[in-house]
Amino acid sequence: MATGTPDSQARFGQSVKGLLTEKVNTCGTDVIALTKQVLKGSRSSELLGQAARNMVLQEDAILHSEDSLRKMAIITTHLQYQQEAIQKNMQLQSQRQILNLLRHQGTPITVFIQQSAKSHTWCGNLN
């Protein structure tokens, strides 16, 4: 190995020391960036997990709402049937009251009561 002057050796040492310091700083910066990325990825997986849990909760709520709507539709249909039956009964009761009134008056009358196409035709002699 050739030996140089102490001055050139000092410059070479400082140059190597400067390069080494630069490389250490670069590695430190890379480690910091890598750590930030790992933490960011960790946070992303937490957020994805939370989003998945929220989605499951929303899906359950939607399914429950659909079930409730189906039940309400059934109840509505039953209520409509009951309303129609009540209306028919009210009409029949009104007609019976009229017939009873005429019968009690003793008026001989032939009555033809025809309801809508859905109901029966009533024919009667009130004697």
Description:
The structure is a single chain. The protein has 127 residues and is mainly alpha-helical. The chain has one domain. 79% of the residues lie in helices and 8% in strands. It contains one helix and two strands; from the N terminus they run αββ. It has a two-stranded antiparallel ribbon with strand order 1-2. β1 and β2 form a beta hairpin. The longest helix is centred in the middle third of the chain and has 100 residues, at 6-105.
Shape: rod-shaped
Query: How many DSSP-defined strands?
Result: 2
- Provide the succession of SSEs: HEE
The main sheet orders its strands as: 1-2
Q: Over the alpha carbons, how many angstroms does the gyration radius reach?
A: 48 Å
Kindly estimate the percentage of residues that lie in beta strands according to DSSP. 5-15%
Secondary-structure-derived class? mainly alpha
Overall average residue pLDDT: 79
Question: What is the helix content?
Answer: over 70%
Largest sheet: 2 strands, antiparallel
User: How many distinct folded domains?
Assistant: 1
Which residues sit in consecutive blocks of at least 5 with pLDDT less than 50? 111-118, 121-127
* Spatial separation of the terminal alpha carbons: 146 Å
Count of DSSP-assigned helices: 1
Keywords: Lysosome, Membrane
Protein name: BLOC-1-related complex subunit 7
Main location: membrane
Family: Belongs to the BORCS7 family.
